[in-house]
């Protein structure tokens, strides 16, 4: 059984491209994700680490909090399940029910935001367990 990590990003000053890396169970995937997230946060990224398992997400967030605090990047690294990450992105657009309702009714003031953040930092996603 192979566990996988993937990286997806937006356009930025760094020439990152989407990558997929395989790390077998027990080979330190959680450590690789935490260290990678720390480095990326130090390079002015907001980092989302997403996993299908709420248990693993909570475990890893707690295990590496000391590292994020030591480097001063706690506010720039978020652990979530893929489901919660998607919910957060949708919620950042405003009240989805109201926006959809206004759009259906032809209300021209209903606008979906084209950006999920107003911050100047780019966001990058580190995904855990992409083969699930």
Summarize the structure in short.
Helices cover 38% and strands 25% of the residues. The protein has 132 residues and is an alpha/beta fold.
Task: Report on this structure.
It is a single chain. Mean pLDDT is 80; it is low at 1-10. It is built from four helices and five strands, in the order E-E-H-E-H-E-H-H-E. Strand 3, helix 2 (54-70) and strand 4 form a beta-alpha-beta unit. The chain is α/β, with parallel strands linked by helices and 132 residues long. A five-stranded mixed beta sheet has the order 2-1-5-3-4.
β-sheet strand percentage: 25-35%
Secondary-structure-based class equals alpha/beta
Stretches with pLDDT under 50, minimum 5 residues: 1-10
Strand order of the largest sheet: 2-1-5-3-4
Q: Biggest sheet, open or closed, and with what strands and sense?
A: 5 strands, mixed
- Average per-residue pLDDT, rounded, comes to 80
Could you tell me the radius of gyration in angstroms? Answer: 17 Å
How would you describe the shape? globular
Instruction: Figure out the total of helices.
Output: 4
Share of helical residues: 25-40%
Task: Furnish the topology, listing elements before pairings.
Elements: E1 2-9, E2 19-24, H1 29-42, E3 45-51, H2 54-70, E4 77-81, H3 82-91, H4 96-104, E5 122-128
Parallel strand pairs: 3-4, 3-5
Antiparallel strand pairs: 1-2, 1-5
Helix pairs in contact: 1-2
């Amino acid at each position: 059984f192979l566990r996988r990590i993937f990286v997806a990003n937006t356009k930025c000053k760094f020439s990152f491209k989407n990558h997929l890396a395989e790390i077998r169970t027990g080979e330190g995937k959680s450590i690789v994700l935490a260290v990678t997230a720390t480095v990326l946060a130090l390079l002015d990224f907001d980092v989302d680490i997403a996993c299908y398992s709420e248990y693993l997400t909570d475990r890893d967030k707690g295990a590496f909090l000391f590292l994020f605090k030591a480097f001063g990047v706690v506010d720039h690294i978020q652990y979530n399940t893929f489901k919660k990450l998607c919910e957060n992105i949708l919620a950042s657009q405003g009240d989805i029910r109201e926006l959809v309702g206004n759009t259906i009714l032809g209300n021209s003031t209903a606008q979906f935001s084209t950006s999920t953040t107003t911050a100047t930092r780019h966001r990058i996603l580190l995904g855990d367990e992409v083969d699930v």
